[in-house]
Amino acid sequence: MIMTMLEIRLLGEPEVVRDGQAVPLPASKKSRALLAYLAVTGRAHSRERLCELLWEGPDDPRAALRWSLTKLRPLLEPHLVASRDRVEFQRDDASVDINALCVPANATTDQLEKCAALFRGELAEGLDLPSCFRFQQWCAGERERFRQLHIAILRELTERLGSDERALSYAQRRVQIDPFDEEAHAALIRLSASLGRRQEAMQQYEHCRGVFERELGSRPGQAIEDARRAITSVEDRRPRLSRTAVAAVLHSQSFVGRERELTTIAAASGVVLVLGEPGIGKSRLLEELRRRTKGVTRYGRAFAAEMARPYGVWLDALDDFPTESDRARLFDAVVEKLADLELLEIDDLQWIDDASAALLHYVARKTKLRIVCAARVGEIDDNPYASRLVRDVATVNIGPLSAEETRALVAASPDRDRVVAESGGNPLFALELARAQSPGTLTQVIASRLAQLDGRARDLVSWAAAIGRQFDADILGRATEMPSGEMLAALEKLERCAIIRVSDEGRCYDFTHDLIRDAAYRAISGPRRVLVHRHIARASQSVHDPDSALAGDIVRHASLAGDHAMAVTAAIAAGQRCLRMFAYSEAMSVAQLGLQLADSLPEKERIEKQMDLLDVIVTSRTAVRERLPFARRITELMESARHLGLAQTASLGAHLLACLHSESNDLARAADATIASAEISRATDPRSAAYMMANTARCLLFIERDIPRAQSLLGEVETIIKTVGGDHIEIPLGLGYLYAHRGEKELATVQLERAMAMAAREQDHWREWCAGVRLVTLALETRDFDAAQRHCDRLLEIARKMSGGSEGVRTDVFAEIVRFAREGEERDLRAKLDELRMVDSKSDLAWALTFIAELELERGRADSARRDAEEALIAAEAVGRGSEAALARVILDLDVDRTKWDDWTERARARVQQKERRHAQHGRRADV
Amino acid sequence: MPSMVVEQTFDKPLTTDELNAMAKRVDPCLEAHGARWMRSYISSDRKRVICEFEAADAEKVRESYRSAGVTFERVWTADVYSRDNPTDSY
Predict the structure, then answer these.
(1) H helices within A163-197, ranges in order?
(2) Which of A236, A378, A725, A769 has the maximum number of C-beta atoms within 10 A of its C-beta?
(3) How far is CA A760 from CA A502, A691, A755, A769, B37, in A?
(4) Is the separation of the CB atoms in A356 and A311 below 8 Å?
């Protein structure tokens, strides 16, 4: 058997070398992230864990994992071992760079230098996946671990090597990766000075002061000042830098070749997808297409770093994105806006959000508009929305430029032969090689060009890269607090160097290419990134933003800065904004991210914020099966909220459960009933299912609608709580109302008393009062006036604690009815009934008047009984109270409509049946 | 359908998101009670809100607010006079 030698390099951009040959990695970022994770951890992981890490979401995560593993298998054979449940990278004789690192104190200087050479950048460089929270967290932790080791190695080396040119390069590296360590700066200043490089040492001192003052808001300490004094005591021995090293400026305005591709695009109808590797010239091709189009054109692009900015592509493409009351109208309004458009272009489709994709799909379906999209080959597979969108569209693949074309592109470069040979026909690479005048890979060339920047421009480029998308001078100014004159000068310099450019409409800036943005971002050290993101988050927060349009950006920057409280608050705002824009899956994603971030908040704040985020999730109209699993979380939070006395939060939770339940219930009634109910029982634990059902049932019983359904729901609730235990006010309250409805007085009393006790404990006055009222009416209906009096006294106490409602007036009416029933005298009864009419509580009025009419009949006052019954009938019919309407009709000796028989109380049914028997005896049949 | 008016006052100004969150909690209850939201007035200091509904009676609106745990000052039934519906008695 032939053994292949496998080498994996993770300290920097990941690389895989087999038998001395570098092999290309999968284009999918998630596949590369999986490789890094497996290689760094070096142990077995369950497939489930890997799915959670990288593919959390609505699509089929296990299939995505399988697909990624098939891409990795040829690279890692035979070290990748995957079974049905587990996946492992077995190192055996494979060489992985992180395993070659040694503890600095125990290593020889030679070994240390070898270790230092292994660091080509940070761990798994470029593999940032902000939408995969768990991976990002893991990655940040591991990066920090290896950064600390790197620092320790560099510190040891600088100390051991003393005044040596090699020591200087290690000291420079240390400052770069640990920019807030005074000791590192001081060591570099001293070393530069001791090597006779006074000017460099002074520049280093100034740079250090600038960084400390601007980003930490403090001056560097004594160590730095001491080091500065050391500079002045040495003589400058270093020759001045020659000016010939300054890069030649080449503009990317020239357009060469691609005639065949342009002809193909022009000939195609509908949507065309332009595919190619990064830097191959897709965006430039789109620009040329716009230039050649005579009519109106629009251009929008997606950004990798964008989070929860629904319709981001469209907001940029259209000057005035419409607002509408529902999604269908919104889409139609956009279609209308595009009426006179000749060409629509969407760039970087691999990063498009779901809402933008849905709208694009709609526009493509509804109009005959020419739409040209561009995407990176390979990476588009990572985005399910984008891949769905381009499944059946015409595709134009962009390949490398020919040697002549490349030569024409860099005609102004003195070095064009070398550029043509090295660039392999990638135009961005060719231009960068020509500008940098030094060899290397594309990313190395870009990085070395950025490293040549100095002063404000060097500073500013980091900030601009961290923003992650197009930016304007305002937000940059707020974040950096740089004087505007200096900032504009620096921006102009970056523009001259073709690092940034002004957008088409001239409103904002953007990097000339995403690869340049990536390189600039990678050059920022970990601790500095945290600070930069924090400043940008705060700057965005300070912008007047009534519509929370910046909330998604704040979530990203605050979470990268580790400010979870700010990120969570922004996630709520961003989620609500997504809901307003009908971007439901974005709302769901940002809320889920918020839920994870909120785990680290103090308990009370965590519970409140997480419930608000769950509100966003429940309200998002994504499929019910996606939302049902959150019922358990809501129930847990509700319990904690009650425990802490957060009544508002607990009440929101109850409402959310009710919404979820009623939706899932609708689903159960649909044709696929068995699947739906199986899903419900799978997705929620039995207790929360019981709470949800009791809540719906209680609501139905209050309004006397669909009582059979309420009854079957409560039947299920009883079975569940008998088996698994658990309690909630809604359960005894619902059961109490149901038993009272069925005339089962003892059972009803037990449950209603229980509900009252629970509600009193939880300070839920309204539910306590509702249970109490039913106890009063039940006692009156069964002619137990002593009990009615007792319950009424308690009710008066509860009503006193409530403000704003009608409970006071309604309680007084019941108290007067109890008095009237016991004593036979009206006293204040009529006056209180007038008040009840004033507060307009028709259900109570109907109940009160039928009950009074019955008492009057018993006491032989037929006329007033008739008057009261007439009014009761009107009130009952106005609010759909079937029982009271039937009772009133019985008193008035009218025919009874029995179509709602199932919803009537036992008392109403008994009276109707009694009437029917009486009429039958008199030879007359009641109308059925 | 009769018109109902809900009055609410708050100690601190309400944000649009808070107002929306409140509406979202009350709306399903109102719907279950057969009530319909017509319009709302929010004072410019955002501390006072008046909402108008159509419902069979005021209690339906109160019960929806109570059930959703949303506080209110008072709910009353209103006769509506407007430019389109003027009467002599007004």
Answers:
(1) 165-177, 182-194
(2) A769
(3) 65, 19, 8, 9, 32
(4) yes
Per DSSP, the three-state class of A347 is: strand
Chain B residues at the A interface, defined by Cβ less than 8 Å, are 2, 4, 16-17, 20-21, 24-25, 28-29, 32-34, 56-60, 62-63, 66-69, 71-77
Alpha helices for A599-645 (secondary structure H): 603-619, 624-627, 631-643
Q: Quick check: A665 pLDDT over 70?
A: no
For A:793-812, CB contacts with B below 8 A are 804-806
Residue type, A280: I
Whether the CB of A597 is below 8 Å from some CB of chain B: the reply is no
> Stretch A216-224: mean pLDDT, rounded?
76
Only one residue has tokens 């920019």, namely A179
Cα–Cα distance for residue pair A500/A864, rounded to 1 Å: 89
Alpha-carbon distance A706 to nearest alpha carbon in chain B (angstroms): 12
* Å between B8 CA and nearest CA of chain A: 9
Dihedral of the alpha carbons of A24, A25, A27, A28, in degrees to the nearest 10: 170
* pTM of the shown model: 0.55
CA gap A508, A505 in Å, rounded = 8
Q: What is the DSSP string of A730-767?
A: HHHHHHHHHHHHTT-HHHHHHHHHHHHHHHHHTT-HHH
How close, in Å, is residue B88 to chain A by CA atoms?
23
* CA atoms A358, A361, A365, A370: torsion sign: positive
SS3 at position A131: coil
What integer is the mean pLDDT of A503-530?
A: 82
CA A876/CA A844 separation, integer angstroms: 9
pLDDT tens column, A294-308: 888 888 888 877 666
- pLDDT class of A754 with cuts at 50, 70, 90: very high
Structure confidence by residue, pLDDT tens digits, A837-863: 999 999 999 999 999 999 999 999 999
> What is the token pair recorded at A189?
């200043």
Is the CB of A619 inside 8 Å of chain B's CB atoms?
A: yes
CA distance A434 to A440: 12
Q: What SS3 state is found at A239?
A: coil
Strand pairing partners for B3? Answer: B54, B78
A874 shares contact with chain B (CB less than 8 Å): no
* Residue A843 contacts B where some CB pair is shorter than 8 Å: yes
Q: How high is the mean pLDDT of chain A?
A: 83
